[in-house]
Amino acid sequence: MNNKNSRIFSGMRATGKLHLGHYHGVLKNWVDLQYTNECFFMVADLHVLTTQYERTKDIEQHAYNMVIDWLACGVDPSQTTIFIQSQVREHTELALLLSMITPRSWLERVPTYKEMMEKLKHKDIDTYGFLGYPVLQSADILLYKTKYVPVGEDQLSHIEFTREIARRFNHIYGCEDGFEKKAREVIKKLGNKKAALYEKLLIEYQQDGNDEAIEKARYLLDDAVNLSSGEIERLFAFLENKSRVILTEPEALLTQTSKLPGLDGQKMSKSYNNTIFIREDKDSISSKIKVMQTDPARIRKTDKGDPNKCPVWQLHKVYSNTTTCDWVVNGCKSASIGCLECKKPLIDSIVIEQEQFRLKALPFEEDCNLIKNILEDGAERASAIAKHTLNEVKEAMHLTYNGNI
Ligand code: TRP
Ligand code: SF4
Fold first, then answer.
1. Which numbered ligand comes closest to the C-alpha of 338?
2. Closest C-alpha among 153, 164, 344 to residue 250
């Protein structure tokens, strides 16, 4: 796994069965990424608690089913690390440590916070845990020194938040003790004239961002023959106001939101009750599509239709080849095919895709120990990396208690 390009981390809350919108929007992307990158995919069960703390008995089942859906779609446990958030304790611990340096105003400003508070008015989610949602998510990402986080647009503010927390952490804890004092001592060694010039350039660069100043300072330091290379390094670092990078800033990898419409033409979403699930049976798919909405202007078979006004056509665009697509467009516009006829090849393609999902899922459905093993293995692998980062964090925060009083 070590020769893969970049480390990638993503997570999904375990809230129930996944549907084709998840497949086309998120999971296909995960599957593509897993062969060339080192991927970590996490079941965010603790995040479920932020909104559903009073109803926890379904979480385990949801988590297992969600993992089966991932595997059904082609996420491959021999290529990726799949694990459950609460099984890697470092997530909880780093989240707590980060919460100490998180300004409350940053949390209150996160757009998803206000939106969700408004949307879930009927629920009492005015809790510390819900406000801290992005802190926990930051811990998830930062523990793995993640380079890219594939997410949808709705999560961008959380990634930005993570970057800000990482920067704040490095700023607070990344400075070596006595860094400034040591630098000042070296400056004195430059002699009065050069020291004054260095100070002037330092201010120009740090306050005004003047890049020329840093160039000039480089010349100055190159000439400082009485300084050791270590001392010159120190002055460079001081000039750039660098602190040690302990937590690395991740970047979002924006996943195109799925264009897959639901059965009613709106976006496919569980809350609209317009979904086709991953691992749904043939008859149920067929009957759902048969009653699916079509171009409202096409009341009788003899009425000419417009595919662009029909959600069935949107699905054809995802599922059918060009020949079928041409057949749909021509047949619809000329009223030479009926809507049921038009839906037939679509049903067939979706059913074939589902058969592949089911085939992959079958061994796991039959023996839930297989999932348990994958998750244990994943937690172990994740934990090895998470522990390492958490140790660095605790060292930087002077929380290691290794007897140096
Ligand atoms: N908040 C994400 C969502 O609702 C789930 C999530 C939790 C996540 N931790 C993460 C996503 C870390 C990416 C990285 O979709
Ligand atoms: Fe939609 Fe096909 Fe009917 Fe045209 S023929 S309205 S594309 S279902």
1. 2
2. 164
Q: In 10 A of CB 161, how many CB atoms?
A: 23
Which ligand gives the minimal distance to the CA of 95? 1
311 CA: nearest ligand 2 atom: 1
Q: How far apart are CA 174 and CA 168, in angstroms?
A: 9
Atom of ligand 2 nearest to the CA of 333: 4
Residue in 111, 117, 16 with CA at minimum distance from that of residue 61: 16
The two tokens of residue 100 are 């100490």
Which ligand has an atom closest to residue 30 CA?
A: 1
Q: What are phi and psi of 102, to 5 degrees?
A: -90, 115
Q: What are phi and psi of 391, to 5 degrees?
A: -60, -45
| CA neighbor of 17 nearest in space, from 56, 67, 57 | 67
Q: Is 155 in the pocket of ligand 1 (CB under 6 A)?
A: yes
- Alpha-carbon gap, residue 199 to 176, rounded angstroms: 21
pLDDT along the chain (405 residues), means of 10: 84 94 94 97 97 94 97 97 98 98 95 89 90 98 98 94 95 80 88 90 79 86 84 81 85 84 88 92 95 93 94 94 97 96 97 96 96 98 98 95 80
Three-class DSSP category at 11: strand
What's the CA-to-centroid distance between 338 and ligand 1, angstroms? 43
| Pocket of ligand 1 contains residue 151 by CB under 6 Å | yes
Chain centroid offset of residue 380 CA: 21
Q: Determine whether the shortest distance from the Cβ of 10 to ligand 1 is under 6 A.
A: yes
C-alpha span between 185 and 187 (Å, rounded): 5
CA 137 to centroid of ligand 1, rounded, Å: 6
